[in-house]
Amino acid sequence: MPHPTSLAQRDHAVLWHPYTQMQTAPLPIPIVRGEGSWLIAEDGTRYLDAISSWWVNLHGHSHPAIAERVSEQLRTLEHVLFAGFTHPAAVELAEQLLALLPANQARVFYSDNGSTAVEVALKMVLQYFHNQGQPARRTFLCFQNSYHGDTFGAMAVSARGAFTQPFWPLLFDVEFLDVPVPGREAETLAQFDALLLRPDVAGFIFEPLVLGTAGMVMYEPGVLSEMLRRCHQAGVLCISDEVMTGFGRTGPLFASGLLTEQPDIMCFSKGLTGGTLAMGLTTCAAPVYEAFLSHDKMRALFHGHSYTANPVACAAALASLELTRADECTAQRQRIEAAHAAFRQEIEGQPGIRAVRHRGTILAVEYDPGEGTSYFSRLRDAFYQLALDHHVVLRPLGNVVYLLPPYCTTNEELGLLYTVLRRMRELVLDFIPAPNLPEILHD
Known about the structure:
This protein is of the alpha/beta class. It has helices at 7-14, 52-55, 64-74, 88-100, 114-131, 152-156, 185-196, 221-233, 286-290, 311-325, 327-347, 380-389, 411-431; strands at residues 31-35, 38-41, 46-49, 105-111, 139-143, 175-177, 201-206, 210-211, 217-218, 237-241, 265-268, 280-285, 353-359, 362-367, 392-393, 400-403. The strands form four sheets. Strands 4-12-11-10-7-5-6 form a seven-stranded mixed β-sheet, with helices on both faces. The protein has a four-stranded mixed β-sheet with strand order 1-2-3-15. β13 (353-359) and β14 form a beta hairpin. The longest helix is centred in the last third of the chain and has 21 residues, at 327-347. The N and C termini lie far apart (56 Å).
């Protein structure tokens, strides 16, 4: 057998990629450099990163300010265990974040990705009630089609679907609610009220305002605020999973900033370091933290990771946070939001379009191929390839295609993305059986 020579061939010989059927998948595209909103392949081809490399990149690839801060930290302290020790970057990052988060957030617990940030939150809730002498309170409320990660606790509070089916017997039971999309709020609140009467309910975990992998399904701050208010009346703790929505994606710095009632616990990752290094973080209100304080060591939160509060990751997060808080970044997000709004007005209601959803820098187009919405829609691979043919990186959620670009993406680059979405509509019209098309298109 010849020895693999290209980077893609070498990859295929030794690696196993996420969410990939390795037997049938094409060779991966080898990326060797990043610059702004662009990824540069081994052969020099440039690809516009329309999804921020799985929603993590905020300010563009290889940002010099973040690189300099990381380099400086590497030359100072690369890592120290975080049990019994601390370091300046961890303290400074916690201080800065708590000053920006809702006023009830009082403590920061570091981990290393979004799933672990959620695991920490779930364990906080369960042990909170255990420490309070209420161990029977262990049921979580979640939205249908939600996604909170791929570790076992995070899978348990996520949708039961194809991705988790082999593990269903091992996941703890939860209660699923309909998403309170506009026009359906009353139905969800009625479901919610019935569940809150149960004495075993411990927590409500949610993706605030936007359910990512569900197809960027969106709902309004008012109904979420009301749900949190009812939880608090029932003594139920609320977990806001801001792994995707945090750091400006929905408009304000945090989606929870649009709420009038605040969560007890918040989870962060993805944009936390500007897409530079893996890191997770969970914050909580003072009463949650105080439930673990005792002379009894067994009441402590026994959770940790080897790289908890890694100084280099903290340095990257501090640099990214400084960029995010700058007026220039605010203007960039507002510009992208306005461009998305204009494109939505243009394409909404056109043949082949089922729905267009938009909040902040997130835009999702749900195409109508004459069948139901599905992650495994026959259009998914065609959409993916069409985007690559235009040198654009997208990751369609079946027949839902979303844009979630880095904030440095220019208007010209946004124009390319909108062109690709228009071409996808043309592709959809070729897929739809003729009887499903409006009469005007049959002429």
